[in-house]
């Protein structure tokens, strides 16, 4: 038992003593300490015994204390001693084939809503979406509202969620710099506490959980293209760190729950994604350029313009996520399009396809903006049989049509 836990027991010693009857003091103390340990510290209880780390100066109640995790956790080395809870008995029913119950956090957002569309195509899936609508919208899910296999919950993942599910796609987190910088502490909470809550849920119900991590875990990479084995080059105290480091911690939590509790995990490191339903003014480069072109505004390219990105169409991204969830590989696995474009090249392409009359304008860059970003998708090809199908020049017109509809801008003849 650590000194921290010991000190907490000291604080509560008086309250424990007051509840222990003079009759059968030892038995009642055992019962109280056991319930206290389980309720407050989630510690296993090994009986009313003297723990070697409890000083002899403590009262009888505390000296004869719980034997906790000394056998396995003294040095922070945790090994799963038992498999995770099994899924619902309905999964193994001989006479009734239950639907697969799937939770999608952040399911009202850009990628999440497209994922929901794909999952709902399978009549054996029941989909629950949890979203707080910070960046998502009910409008993205309007065709499913009222469907008997669909449920929508307004919920913030930083609070516990009690549902019974078989799979969890954990997408909840603002991904655009404009939104994740708006409240950086909330962004960190979403990544850390939100992921802890979803892992706790997965542990309780025996669900498989997939985390959508990000290429931002590579920071401003010194290796190009970026394989999953690359540890990254991240500024831990920059203005983007709430997102970058938040996702890195989320990955750590996923693997610690996997190693310690046997939870079935999947981690996808998703690269820049574009397509219909992106927030029009979310600050990401593709949506910025298309919105500016439709409004006859100059395309603002952050200097020097030679920085590169790789853009994956949203349907390809969703296909990759589902393949990862249904496969047997833990990950992390890069999901993205290895086609690499400079920002100047992207601006020229948008100008050519959407509005040839507009100009391109250079503006000051933002701090910690990565100079290059390109996924190595060798593992995705080998392990998932996945690679993107839609090229940038084919995907941009599909996104343009969606933006025109939402902005009310007709196409010029």
Automatic annotation (TrEMBL):
<comment type="pathway">
    <text>Nucleotide-sugar biosynthesis; UDP-alpha-D-xylose biosynthesis; UDP-alpha-D-xylose from UDP-alpha-D-glucuronate: step 1/1.</text>
</comment>
<keyword id="KW-0210">Decarboxylase</keyword>
<dbReference type="Pfam" id="PF16363">
    <property type="entry name" value="GDP_Man_Dehyd"/>
</dbReference>
<dbReference type="InterPro" id="IPR036291">
    <property type="entry name" value="NAD(P)-bd_dom_sf"/>
</dbReference>
<dbReference type="InterPro" id="IPR044516">
    <property type="entry name" value="UXS-like"/>
</dbReference>
<dbReference type="InterPro" id="IPR016040">
    <property type="entry name" value="NAD(P)-bd_dom"/>
</dbReference>
<dbReference type="GO" id="GO:0042732">
    <property type="term" value="P:D-xylose metabolic process"/>
</dbReference>
<comment type="similarity">
    <text>Belongs to the NAD(P)-dependent epimerase/dehydratase family. UDP-glucuronic acid decarboxylase subfamily.</text>
</comment>
<comment type="function">
    <text>Catalyzes the NAD-dependent decarboxylation of UDP-glucuronic acid to UDP-xylose. Necessary for the biosynthesis of the core tetrasaccharide in glycosaminoglycan biosynthesis.</text>
</comment>
<feature type="domain" description="NAD(P)-binding">
    <location>
        <begin position="103"/>
        <end position="397"/>
    </location>
</feature>
<keyword id="KW-0456">Lyase</keyword>
<dbReference type="GO" id="GO:0070403">
    <property type="term" value="F:NAD+ binding"/>
</dbReference>
<protein>
    <recommendedName>
        <fullName>UDP-glucuronate decarboxylase</fullName>
        <ecNumber>4.1.1.35</ecNumber>
    </recommendedName>
</protein>
<dbReference type="GO" id="GO:0005737">
    <property type="term" value="C:cytoplasm"/>
</dbReference>
<keyword id="KW-0520">NAD</keyword>
<dbReference type="GO" id="GO:0048040">
    <property type="term" value="F:UDP-glucuronate decarboxylase activity"/>
</dbReference>
<keyword id="KW-0963">Cytoplasm</keyword>
